[in-house]
Amino acid sequence: MKLNNVIMRTMTQMVFFIIFLFSIHIFLAGHFAPGGGFVGGLLMSCAIVLLLITFDLKTVQNLLPINYMVLTASGLALALLTACISAFAGEAFFTHYFDYFTLPLLGKTELHTAMLFDTGVYLVVVGVTMIIIQSIGGDE
Amino acid sequence: MQLWMIFLPVLAALFMPLLFKKIKLHTGWFVFIVPVVLVSYYVSKIGERASYASWTWVADLQLKIDSSLDGLGLLFSILISGIGALVVLYSIFYLDKTKEQLHNFYIYLLLFMTAMLGVVQSDNVISLYLFWELTSISSFLLIGYWFTRDGSRFGALKSMMITVFGGLLMLGGFLILANITGTLSISEMMLQTSVIQESPYFTLAAVLVLLGALTKSAQFPFYIWLPDAMEAPTPVSAYLHSATMVKAGIYLVARFTPIFAYNTTWIWLIVVLGLITLFWGSFFATKQRDLKGILAFSTVSQLGMIMSMLGVAAMSYHVEDGVENVFKFAGFAALFHLINHSTFKGALFMIAGIIDHETGTRDIRKLGGLMSIMPISFTVAMIGSLSMAGLPPFNGFLSKELFFTTMLNAQDFSFASIATLIPVAAWIASIFTFVYCLYFVTGIFFGKQQELPKKPHEAPIGMLISPIILASFVVIMFFIPNVITDALIKPAVLAIQPNLFVAVSDVDIHLQAWHGFVPELWMTLGVIAVGFALFMTVKHWRKIYTIVPEWFSLNQLYRRMMRLADEDMTKLSKLYMTGSIRMYFIYMFAAIVVIVLSTLFIKDGYAFSTDNVSKIGPFDIALVVVLVVGTFTVLFARTRLTAIIALGVVGYSVAMFFVLFNAPDLALTQLSIETVSVALFLLAFYHLPKLSRHEARLPFKLGNFVIAAAVGVMVTLMALAAHSQKLLPSISEYYKETVYKEAGGGNIVNVILVDYRGFDTLFEITVLALAGMAIFGMIKLRRKKGEHHNETK
Fold first, then answer.
1. The domain containing residue B705 runs over which residues?
2. Is residue A1 part of a domain?
3. Hey, are the CB atoms on B765 and A125 less than 8 Å from each other?
């Protein structure tokens, strides 16, 4: 018997973007408000899990053609390289730099190398969670 | 040059496989050159001053490979290389090139030669120990030379276990000495004898070093490996187990006499154990049926004799100066008998090998009446045996007279009446020596000839050369003993008794075959008379060997100890290494509880204070109740689903606690993580195999309950104690002040994670990535059944 879950599909299509945006918000706000790469990454993967529950594994793979192994690896590399920036500059490993810039649309904004590091964390968390859930869920 | 000589055999050993495989000539001829070069080198050193050479090995640890050729070292070096040459010559005719793996044999033998030379020439205790263990290892290899035989392997293992046991204890003794004196050099230690005497560890060091010597020299009760080592090829028995290796212990005692002789424990141990060994060995030699067994026990006995004489030599350190010194014979007598024993015992072993080779048996009950068939072997065996028994005109007579002199003097050392037993014991032991010597010769050569596995005939002349040379030494040393004693023994005695003699000319001992009607002569005559009577009636008293039952022996003790170390320990470890993870967790938790609680108790950590305690609100209480109910639900849940959901409840209430305690980041993370992990739990639950889906309550086990309660109590106590005794203020003030100015952020938690302590985060995400890849690997890359053969191809 095949169920027609059209309500769920429609809701998912909307909710997915809301969760996605919220995850980006939490991630970007992390330096001044609660949040950060870790929670952001977890929320992002929750959004993808929602897609997985609604549609099947293949559809999601077509929607988001992402190799999560590569994602995890690039996240780790980004984090490590960020930590190395200061080492190339001749200072202690893991020294961060930041300054304030006036950007179009955003106004006065702080740009921080810690953000790059947090992006690495974000990518690793998304990648790892998806690897785990896909490999366990896809194993029949 | 001196040092190269030590390593000459090992360097020669490198070429043995090549010579064996490429050249048809018997490999032994090439080996023969080595000991001949050595013996001529060492003989040329006779009469020269003691020389010393060294290579620094590890300068900061004072480690040196060195060679000190004083009188004692030279005496042993000549013995090792001389007998080595004869044994190699003998082995050329004894071992067949086509049937034996000769390169192995000669490599082991040459290795042993280097090791022995190193032992007797080392002045550095560590290099002495190094060479000492090398003798153990090469001896192990030689005893196990015919490794396809069970007996060989058993004998090799036994000798290895016992000698290495002693060697390790000896190392302990050396290290104690080195700690006391601050030097590793034996000659420098001897300059500090007064310092060593004052140390509380003096006796301990003496006993440990002595244990090394006793095990190596097969003294009571460690002699048991020697009879089993007779499984080795006969040239090995002749070389290692009569002439050289077993004398390494003698050498050690002699070398360390100037240090340890001040210790009376050392003296009495050597004298008493030496005499017991002498008696025990000679008593049991008559019991043996195997030719080499008889010789092994006789070696044990003769080594005991030498050892006891060295003990008496050590007594001279306790005698006042000026008193007429009665102990000066002892060191001399010991070394004289050492040389004599090497000559006649080497010859006897070679004869035993010849008998084995030509008749096919070594069982003395099957042999007999070979006198007319093998006249030369008979003559040599007769000379060797009579010398061993202590009869004129052979060198054994002279050493036995000296032995009696020594033992008669020894009773003057202690004025206790028990010391009169010393010469009596020595005398009785000599009687048994006489008995087994007769038993050995008559058993082989007299009586009727019996059926033998091979048709007996005289051995080839090449095999007889070495025993003939040794036997002629036996006779020559009786008639002109002083040539050898002047050249070799007198300088060596200086090393043992430097308190008595300063120069070689001080040793005014002149041996002569006839020295009047002294008590020693009457003792010898008594030995001959009683020994002869005992030998004639041997059938009547042989039964006493069966009085002591078989299970009550040192061999059984050894076997039981080996079983204890192997089977019983395996059983013991199986008792607690059950393979059940539950048991291992019990051990671990019990250990943690015991360690932490006792530490808290010892350090007086149970001081609880209620300062700095916050107020508890109604929300806190409500949450705690939810938490506790959730926890108990997990414990008493009937189904797994209930347990998983209850676990979720616990997780979410912890998240609520984070909210209450103003930790929004933690609360967020905890919420999402809890959700993901509950989902994973459910996935795992869904995949459980059908058969083992026990839907049953957790069974109650008292042990588990006690452990769990104890761990809970421990953690609670520790947390309370830690909270009550804060010693330093927190560093969080620093973060609060600098979070915006220096780190450019507002969220302290996140700034700590990515900036102040980003290092931790870097490795936490690495852990995450590893976990993800591990799960991927476990699930995707697992092999299906029957598939695993394909990948290895």
1. 581-729
2. no
3. yes
Say whether pLDDT at A101 is over 90: no
pLDDT at B325: 64
Contact B21, B100 (CB under 8 A): no
- Here the ipTM equals 0.92
Residues B593 and B506 in one domain: no
Q: What are residue B648's phi and psi, to 5 degrees?
A: -60, -40
Residue contacts between A and B (CB atoms, under 8 Å): 131
Q: Hey, is B500 helix, strand or coil?
A: coil
Which of these three, B688, B714, B729, is where a domain ends? B729
- The Cα B192–Cα B187 span in angstroms is 9
Give me the DSSP letters along A82-115: HHHHHHHTTS-TT---EEEEEETTTEEEEEEHHH
Mean pLDDT of chain B: 86
Q: B interface mutation test: which of A49, A70, A135 has the most B CBs within 10 A? A: A135
Domain for residue B197, yes or no?
A: no
* Range B685-692 average pLDDT: 66
What pLDDT does residue B322 have? 44
Q: What pLDDT was estimated at residue B695?
A: 61
Are residues B638 and B782 part of one domain? no
Q: What is the 3-state secondary structure (H, E, C) of B213-270?
A: HHHHCCCCCCCCHHHHHHHCCHHHHHHHHHHCCHHHHHHHHHHHHHHHCCCHHHHHHH
Question: What distance in Å separates residue B66's CA from the closest CA in chain A?
Answer: 52
Flag if A39 and B665 touch (Cβ within 8 Å). yes
Write down which residue in B239, B256, B273 finishes a domain.
B256
Query: What range does the domain containing A99 cover?
Result: 6-137
Q: What predicted TM-score, i.e. pTM, was given to this entire model?
A: 0.81
Q: Does a structural domain hold residue B195? A: no
